[in-house]
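User: Now give one protein:

AI:
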Amino acid sequence: MKTISLEVDDRIYSQVISFLRLLPEDCCHVFDDEDNLSPDESSAVKAIQARLEAGDESEFVDWDDIKETF
């Protein structure tokens, strides 16, 4: 599985979460509130955030490559 970190405006947060919850549970796990995460889930999220803050985007697809396919 791949992980997506997404920041959204407070005004649309609930709509985004509602949309993501429509996706099949066997294909998507939504971490919507760090207070409700297990210790392992919280550690995974923090590790991903640290990598992103350090500029490591190696797991992510290059958006320019995706745009070229359209």
Q: What stands out?
A: The two ends are 24 Å apart (CA to CA).
